[in-house]
Amino acid sequence: MTHDFNRSRPAAVAGMFYPDDPQELKSQIDFLLHNLEKKPLAGELFALIVPHAGYMYSGQVAAAAYQHLLEQDYDYVAVISPSHRDYFTEISVLPALSYSTPFRDVKIAVDLCERLIDQHESIIGSWVGHGQEHALEVQLPFLQRVLGDFRLIPIVMGDQNYEYSVILGEALAKVFRHQKVLIVASTDLSHFYPAEDAEGKDKKIADRINAFDYEGLWDDIESQFCEACGAGPIVATMIAAKKRGANKSEVLLYQNSGDVTGDHSAVVGYLSAAIYRV
């Protein structure tokens, strides 16, 4: 089936979640990338898990993941985001030609998007979920800065149930089996608990990620032992990476908003992780 890829998605949250001035944006990202010690990964990187708050809050945690791309080269990047503004049930792949940021437009991999949409009836080509969504957009300036040119597969999950997470993970693995593709899961963790409570909940997710246990992670989410607004993207990404040969998942950095603001009474948790093959 041919879909109507004929528009560009304009930047929606530049000037709010991150700077809209290209030079200021470059300076901020470069500072974050070089503001921490790099710990090399002992293997081939398949995927990242990154937060999606404003750069002043979660940018340093995101940079802990993105710094590992500075010496990497990927032809394609699939970014999977939850939907914060639109309610829908399907998995929405953006049918656009490009995605704008203050740096420049990112070309969308129309061919791979088409193939992904054709994998299952729950994966649709649609603008639903994409128009004002920040969780996908905030990843792009980081990716542009560390990778340069790449082609994008933009995905927003509506109903983040386990079935759809498996469907998406398996579809990504199938469509990308002959391509060099990085998969990025966009998620924040617990919201508005006292810092001590938040850290306890978020540690459960970190432990499951370090164990490469996406089934256990989903069980903990379902049991409300912990929470993540992008639990579906995490699980789909871990499934796709495992099917493509990854065998190791490692948390790189954890912080919460109180580490930045000094207010520990009601925080949001942020985590970044790498999924790779040793």
Descriptive overview:
By secondary structure, the protein is α/β, with parallel strands linked by helices. The protein has one domain: LigB-like (Protocatechuate 4,5-dioxygenase, Chain B, 3-Layer(aba) Sandwich). Helix content is 36%, strand content 23%. The strands form two sheets. Strands 2, 3, 4, 7, 8, 9, 10, 11 and 12 form a nine-stranded mixed sheet that branches. A hairpin with a 4-residue loop joins β5 and β6. The longest helix has 16 residues. It starts with 7 loop residues before the first strand and ends with a strand. The mean pLDDT is 96.
Element pattern in H and E: EHEHEEEEHEHHEHEEHHHEHE
In percent, how much strand structure appears in the residues? 15-25%
Total number of strands? 12
Average of the residue pLDDT scores:
96
Q: What is the helix tally? A: 10
Please give the domain count. 1
Helix content: 25-40%
Structural class: alpha/beta
Summed up:
It contains 10 helices and 12 strands. With 278 residues, it is an alpha/beta fold. The protein has a single domain (8-277), classed as 3-Layer(aba) Sandwich (Protocatechuate 4,5-dioxygenase, Chain B), CATH 3.40.830.
Question: Which helices and strands occur, and which strands form pairs?
Answer:
Elements: E1 8-9, H1 22-33, E2 44-50, H2 55-66, E3 76-82, E4 91-93, E5 98-100, E6 105-107, H3 110-117, E7 123-125, H4 134-137, H5 139-147, E8 151-157, H6 162-175, E9 181-186, E10 191-193, H7 195-210, H8 214-222, H9 231-243, E11 248-256, H10 258-261, E12 267-277
Parallel strand pairs: 1-5, 2-9, 3-8, 3-9, 4-7
Antiparallel strand pairs: 2-12, 4-8, 5-6, 10-12, 11-12
Helix pairs in contact: 1-2, 6-9, 7-8, 8-9
